[in-house]
Prior knowledge:
Layout: H1 19-31, E1 48-52, E2 55-58, E3 63-66, H2 79-91, H3 103-115, E4 120-126, H4 129-146, E5 154-157, H5 166-169, E6 187-190, H6 196-199, H7 205-216, E7 226-229, E8 232-233, E9 239-240, H8 245-256, E10 259-264, E11 287-290, E12 302-307, H9 308-311, H10 333-348, H11 351-366, E13 375-381, E14 384-389, H12 392-404, E15 407-408, E16 410-412, E17 415-418, H13 426-442
Parallel strand pairs: 3-15, 5-6, 5-7, 7-10, 10-11
Antiparallel strand pairs: 1-2, 2-3, 4-12, 8-9, 11-12, 13-14, 14-17, 16-17
Amino acid sequence: xxxxxxxxxxxxxxxxxxxxxxxxxxxxxxxxxxxxxxxxxxxxxxxxxxxxxxxxxxxxxxxxxxxxxxxxxxxxxxxxxxxxxxxxxxxxxxxxxxxxxxxxxxxxxxxxxxxxxxxxxxxxxxxxxxxxxxxxxxxxxxxxxxxxxxxxxxxxxxxxxxxxxxxxxxxxxxxxxxxxxxxxxxxxxxxxxxxxxxxxxxxxxxxxxxxxxxxxxxxxxxxxxxxxxxxxxxxxxxxxxxxxxxxxxxxxxxxxxxxxxxxxxxxxxxxxxxxxxxxxxxxxxxxxxxxxxxxxxxxxxxxxxxxxxxxxxxxxxxxxxxxxxxxxxxxxxxxxxxxxxxxxxxxxxxxxxxxxxxxxxxxxxxxxxxxxxxxxxxxxxxxxxxxxxxxxxxxxxxxxxxxxxxxxxxxxxxxxxxxxxxxxxxxxxxxxxxxxxxxxxxxxx
Length: 445
């Protein structure tokens, strides 16, 4: 795949390699501080130039099938999204929502409500999932204060990941999220009762629920404000949770009045095989945070959608009679236009349904790898496919071999994860499966 000409259905318009490529990389090494990367890492080694559909090209013209883009729903250079962004930028690029409003933000909030269960009708827009979780936790704690029954404790997975701000990173015990500051609120962490490859099996459900029931507790003076979970543990190990978990967790929360806050930053907008993963179990959360796929990655935007019964308590806020949270670029008009166009594509091209179908096909192709030397599990949810290995070193070798062959993947600890754009076709899925299989076989111990 690497170094090949443009695949059928795409066009490679990159210029030939030049001496300027070396300077471009040198400039990056001199001046760019890359996110979540060792200082010694040279991220300029892979410098991308442009993309089309489910493929990208680097500055030297090499083509890659991109199965690493967490936020790519419509793929690269989708004409409908590009047109919507340009049109909105020419009319009104933004307005501060604490001063005024604009049409795209209202249209987008209405569209999201239409995809969610009844009562999920009020949406706050921010710039990222991390900001969204700051807002969601603030909403949950404020809700109980407004009712005159203050609660501040949060219950969540120890291996959950909810963002990179001080508050959101205080919700996890993942080593990469450790910080040197005081935690802003009490958190009770729930450990997985069995290893990650076994969590998805039905026999893991009772132990998982028992752990959450214990964490929630029954002491009326120490009940949590909210239980916060991801429907799929992404950064925490690419863990698929058992069917029925969200529905049973909703019942546990209802028994104590605890709010259920769902982190669908990664799983929403088709990635899980549904518009929202909670719809797989017909669960209504109290607050849901979504982001990555909302604009297809074209612009930063996140949505915090709350049930009306949570929203309506904010009229009793003693300072402004509303939510004391927001950013100058909250609900950016061009980002909202990109999101509206993305939703159009998701709906009209049936991308959530296609993600379910293509994900099942990919999983079927890769299932025979389970149990081969060094591979401990093959699992998936929607268009998220995970190959669990027996060591980080093995996962690194698979990841590197795949990239050499023109396939971009993600690595999470001992897991190699494929998350291609939802627009990938059957031929692309076969190519992805063949590339992954080759990388696993060629790096076998």
